[in-house]
UniProtKB/TrEMBL annotation, chain A:
Residues 82-408 form the Solute-binding protein family domain. Residues 1-30 form the signal peptide. InterPro entries: Peptide/Ni-bd, SBP_5, SBP_5_dom. One of its GO terms (cellular component) is outer membrane-bounded periplasmic space. This is Extracellular solute-binding protein, family 5. It comes from Chelativorans sp. (strain BNC1). The keyword Isomerase does not apply.
From TrEMBL, chain B:
The chain crosses the membrane at residues 74-102, 114-141, 161-181, 223-246, 266-287. It is found in: Cell membrane. It holds the Pfam family BPD_transp_1_N. CDD domains: TM_PBP2. This is Binding-protein-dependent transport systems inner membrane component.
Length: 504, 304
């Protein structure tokens, strides 16, 4: 599989070149025109939040607009994947790993003017863990048994069992003012920007917060402009109505930016996986041989290049290269239709079988479904494509598990844990993996956690628990006049405070 | 009646409004809590009862997803949709009326025929296609107008707002004037063949004077009723144009609400737009009566 490796390196090379170009432009910029500290950065995105509260089902768009910009956590997940302390000045873990003591940054004030106290932190953590919380990370905080606030600047968190990912999980917890009354249409955070206005269906504008405790933003403010069509978003960048696109989702549109010196195209590290998920509870997908046969029958390299050209990465399991427990597993079930047929025969399906593929109605799933259909036809498997909406998907597949196979994009970082939950929609149940994933969380050291998850990762790949088709590319396109933006977009975050724009 | 049909149709759609609030990774308890919050766990009969009582109180409720008042959100969106509709309507009338009259009066000449042919074409092409064409030409290539969006300041920046609405207005006006033109043309043709015009000419008035003094008033009556229908259609048809130009109007609100199964928003938008359509019909009726005294008399007769 050297070809594949070359492809990956190729992607990295592009990213590296783009960074160099970026740096070169940055330097050239200093001569042409100084960075304008008052400039408002206009960001174009397809992900408008549904409301402004990440515990009330706001969607991924709120992480993009608010994480690190308007709200801060005790810790922050940086664009390079590192977890760094933010509102926590110091933190200490007891020897048994069951007690964490956090000391807060001094002199932090909320946008409303209230000072940050330990009571706010307690309130904020409890808000995410509360009964009505819609946060997808609620479960990861379930080991917290109590939170104490001995003084204004100290928070003591007690756990029922070790939780090595606690600092990481706390990056999802916004610290909000416990006096705030309306968090779904306004905000009260501690970040470098405060909300100026939200025009639903159109834009969110943020302005610098004068009393911010840290370094002031490098720009005068940011506006997130929301679009429903990728084409309209591209046109907006082409015509100078926005300065930057956070995540390009239409491969065809890249050409118009690539060969144009007025724009910079950067490929970062992505965590979005295109997954062909089987219902591992039902025949014939309960058979490992059938799953492996399907994995070998699909030429993923051709699929990826026909959709994304030179962008994107092939993966051999659910773990993207940015997770600490990444292992290159692309050669476990390489493309090999002959051995696929043989495996099918061994499993008792020499004449193939028929199944229904539940396909969400938005890009790229319908195209991927057709590709899978034609590849599997070659080994005798008939695929019926059933197109459904995202809303139906959630009811029929995620909740009712009423399906044979489906396509879905999984966006989060560090989400291998889903394979440790036998009740998850795909119903993968391997006691060994369940045990490894559960015990990795109670590890005493990160090295131990990584070792266990690497092992789990290898097992799910050997079991072909799902079909991991490819990793979406994470592509940011900007006007050549702006720089300093994040390129990886981990967990859909988009820190805006370092972005600068040169005066023209 | 319409609301009952609406309620039933919405519930027949597969999916659940709670799904918009939870994501992959949520556990069953969280999903149940979300369903409880939006009320989709209640029996249908109870949901229907709640729906009727709030409708009777004219309370449009709050959105399941954004948790904002439906009425306020609709009012904010109307600030885009109403100017868009009215301005494109006015532009369409300005284009259609003179050209329609011209093409009827000069039907024998080449440009009369040309106008007819072009208007035929205009009826045949879809709105979104005109929109995309105008964006490519005037926004992407010539850079005269923004390709979409609405200024964050709204009408506080009137120049910017008008600039943002320019292409959408032209898009709607082009398509709408094509069909309007045909009605104006046929109304004018009727007038041209009428006895009263011949009589006016016989009594010595010039052709233009006769047409303006006697023709317009007579020809306007059927055209006004068509105008009312067209205006209502434009209001509803704004869905497509708002999507092409990324305008935060009523149409895009409705579309998003349907995707999310946000019942209060869907019901609210449809309620308000039905109300507006009825109002437009009412005003078109009034206008007709004002133009044509005979209609007023008829009404008087009935009353007696």
């Amino acid at each position: 599989m050297t070809r594949m490796r070359t492809r990956k390196n190729h992607g990295l090379l592009i990213a590296a070149t783009a960074m160099l170009v970026l740096a070169a432009f940055g330097r050239a910029g200093a001569q042409e025109g100084e960075a304008d500290a008052a400039a408002v950065i206009r960001i174009g995105s397809l992900y408008e939040p549904q409301n402004l509260d990440n515990t009330a089902g706001a969607g991924q768009g709120i992480n993009e607009a608010f994480n690190g910009n308007v709200y801060e956590g005790l810790f922050q997940l940086e664009d390079n994947g590192e977890v760094v302390p933010k509102l926590a000045l110091e933190h200490e873990m007891s020897d048994d790993g069951l007690t964490y003591t956090f000391t807060l940054q001094p002199d932090v004030t909320f946008h409303s003017g209230d000072p940050l106290t330990s009571a706010d932190v307690k309130y904020s953590i409890e808000r995410v863990a509360s009964e009505n919380s819609k946060s997808s990370r609620k479960k990861s905080l379930s080991t917290i048994s109590s939170i104490e606030t001995p003084d204004e600047r100290t928070v003591v968190v007690r756990l029922s069992e070790r939780s090595i990912s606690l600092p990481y999980n706390l990056t999802y917890v916004w610290i909000v003012n416990d006096e705030a009354t309306d968090l779904t249409s306004s905000e009260d955070g501690t970040g470098p920007y405060r909300l100026d206005a939200w025009r639903r269906g159109s834009s969110i504008s943020l302005v610098s917060f004068e009393d911010y405790w840290g370094d002031a933003p490098a720009n005068g403010g940011v506006t997130f402009n929301y679009f429903t069509e990728a084409t309209s978003l591209n046109n907006a960048l082409l015509t100078g109505a926005v300065d930057i696109i956070t995540s390009v989702q239409s491969p065809d549109s890249l050409a118009q930016f690539q060969d144009n010196p007025a724009f910079i195209v950067t490929e970062g590290q992505s965590t979005t996986k295109e997954v062909l998920a089987y219902n591992d509870r039902v025949e014939p997908f309960s058979n490992v041989k059938v799953r492996k046969a399907i994995a070998r029958a699909i030429d993923k390299e051709r699929l990826l290049s026909s959709i994304w050209g030179d962008y994107g990465t092939l993966i051999g399991s659910f773990v993207p290269p940015t997770d600490p427990w990444y292992v290159d597993l692309t050669d476990v079930d390489p493309y090999d239709p002959e051995s696929a047929k043989q495996l099918l025969a061994e499993a008792g399906y020499a004449d193939g079988f028929t199944f229904t593929l539940e396909t969400p109605n938005y890009d790229p799933h319908p195209i991927v479904a057709q590709f899978v259909q034609s590849e599997l036809a070659k080994v005798g498997i008939t695929v019926n494509i059933n197109i459904i909406t995202a809303n139906e998907w959630y009811t029929k597949i995620y909740q009712a598990h009423d399906f044979q196979a489906t396509l879905q994009e999984h966006v989060n970082h560090r989400d291998i844990v889903f394979y440790g939950n036998p009740d998850f929609y795909w119903g993968y149940n391997n006691p060994e993996v369940v045990e490894l994933i559960a015990s990795s969380e109670t590890s005493a050291s990160e090295a131990e956690q990584v070792e266990k998850l690497k092992e789990a990762n290898r097992i799910i790949a050997e079991d072909a628990a799902s079909g991991w088709l490819y990793l979406y590319p994470q592509i940011v396109v900007s006007s050549a006049t702006v720089s300093g933006y994040p390129v990886n977009g981990l967990n859909s975050q988009f820190f805006a405070y370092d972005i600068t724009k040169r005066a023209q | 009646m319409a609301s009952i049909v609406l309620f039933v149709l919405l519930r027949l759609l597969p999916g659940d409004p709670a799904n918009a609030l939870v994501s992959v990774g949520a556990d069953p308890a969280q999903i149940e809590a979300a369903r409880r919050q939006v009320g989709s766990d209640l029996p249908l009969a109870q949901q229907f009862l709640q729906f009727l009582t709030s409708l009777a109180r004219l309370d449009l409720g709050t959105s399941f997803v954004s948790r904002t008042s439906v009425l306020q959100e609709i009012l904010a969106r109307l600030a885009v949709t109403v100017p868009l509709t009215l301005l494109s309507f006015m532009l369409a009338v300005l284009i259609a009326v003179p050209l329609g009259i011209l093409s009827a009066v000069k039907a024998e000449r080449w440009f009369g025929a040309l106008i007819s042919v072009i208007s035929q074409l205009g009826i045949a092409i879809p709105v979104f296609w005109v929109g995309i064409l105008l964006v490519t030409l005037f926004a992407v290539n010539l850079r005269l107008f923004p390709s979409g969006g609405f200024p964050p300041q709204g009408w506080a920046a009137p120049f910017e707002a008008l600039r943002a609405l320019f292409l959408p207005i032209v898009t709607i006006a082009v398509v709408m004037s094509a069909s309007l033109l045909r009605y104006v043309r046929s109304a004018t043709q009727d007038v041209l063949g009428s006895d009263y015009l011949r009589t006016a000419r016989a009594l010595g008035s010039g052709f233009a004077e006769a047409l303006i003094r006697h023709g317009i008033r007579n020809g306007a009556v059927p055209v006004v009723s068509i105008l009312g229908i067209e205006l209502a259609t434009t209001l509803l048809g704004a869905v497509v144009v708002e999507r092409v130009f990324t305008l935060p109007g009523l149409g895009s609100m409705l579309l998003l609400a349907i995707e999310q199964r946000d019942y209060p928003n869907i019901q609210g938008v449809l309620f308000i737009s039905t109300l507006l359509v009825l109002l437009i019909g009412f005003f078109a009726d009034l206008a007709q009566r004002w133009i044509d005294p005979r209609l007023r008399e008829k009404l008087g007769n009935i009353r007696r």
